[in-house]
Design goal:
- The protein contains five helices and nine strands; from the N terminus they run βαααββββαβαβββ.
- It is α/β, with parallel strands linked by helices.
- The chain has a four-stranded mixed β-sheet.
- α4 links the parallel β5 and β6.
- α1 runs antiparallel to α3.
- The chain is globular and about 55 Å long.
- The two termini are 31 Å apart.
Amino acid sequence: ITVLKSPSPSYSEMAFNLCPEDLCPDGERNPAVLDPAVRQATAYAVDRARLNEIAYQGTSFVANGLLPSYYRDFYTEPDQTYPYAPELANQILDEAGWVMGDDGVREKDGERLSFDLYARSESPETVQMAKLIAESTADIGIEYNVQVVSTDKLTELTVRKVDGKPAPDFDTFIWGGGGDPYDPSLL
């Protein structure tokens, strides 16, 4: 048996519940997730190369966006990328007014940076990633409480509706997808 290693047109993502109040009046989330500074700080606090090494045993690559660089003819490196920079993450949160609490979780105006982070039980890689993200962001005062649920449960939380309107019930999750090796539009 010869083992071959090659890239794949697939990805894993950390997504946030950003559905606006007017579209999702019954959506449930910690409102602090809407602060761009919190999401940027999270991105800078997570060593994505480390996630690859541990969760994927070095078989993936760090990406910037949902369209992976696998699609060379379609991919453009975005202007804003997020290299591992925990000092910058702390600076962003400080400048945004998030103050470190006595318990190590930042807060501002009565809101705490404590979020549920869902991962699918059928995907040990994403469960591992969620734990690593929670570990990394704890150092900058953001608490991610890892919740391992089935794909069916996570789908239920993300596509939930109340009175016919979207009402997602999550703060953030890790999921993934993939596409056709030749056509990124099938992502």
